[in-house]
Amino acid sequence: MNNIRDIAPKAQEPATNAGRFLAKRGIVVMKEFKDFGKLRCDYGTTLTISTLIFAIVQREAGERTFGIKMEHENPESYDESCLLDFDELKELLLAIKYLLKLSKETANKPCDYTEFQYISRDELKFGYFQESTGRQQPFIDVSPGGGMMFITFEQLKTIFNMVKAGRDHLIEKGAGAGISPSA
Length: 183
Fold this sequence. Notes:
Layout: H1 4-7, H2 17-23, E1 29-40, E2 46-56, E3 63-73, E4 80-85, H3 86-106, E5 114-119, E6 125-130, E7 136-141, E8 149-150, H4 153-172
Antiparallel strand pairs: 1-2, 2-3, 3-4, 5-6, 6-7, 7-8
């Protein structure tokens, strides 16, 4: 017979550097957060976007990681969140730009029910669906199996601006040294 520990579910390795920092034990970790905005979504839920800087505090040498936390606050259920590493932010911004462009190109065109989405390392989903009638609905999901947040395309532009401002803040704090900040 197998040892029960061999067949027991194993803890999942965090998908992001920020998640790995949160999983460390036996060390001093500094966590710095700065809110970059709240957005009221349909059905009474809220999306909060914050920058985060984590550092391992050691004598001479330390480690730092930068990113953004997106949190879904739902008064009818529990809150959910996901983390994006700094190196994912430019890709996210480009994906949002592309989704906005694509939505204009596909608007009111007859099609089968279709979804367009971007998925990050930590399972954040941004996208929109289009019904056979041509109606489009943007959405965000910060947790697999969690509740979706429904927004407008105008709000998607607002999220783009909040993420961009958060990314710029992280660059000012030392993220991406030597990497071009253009998005």
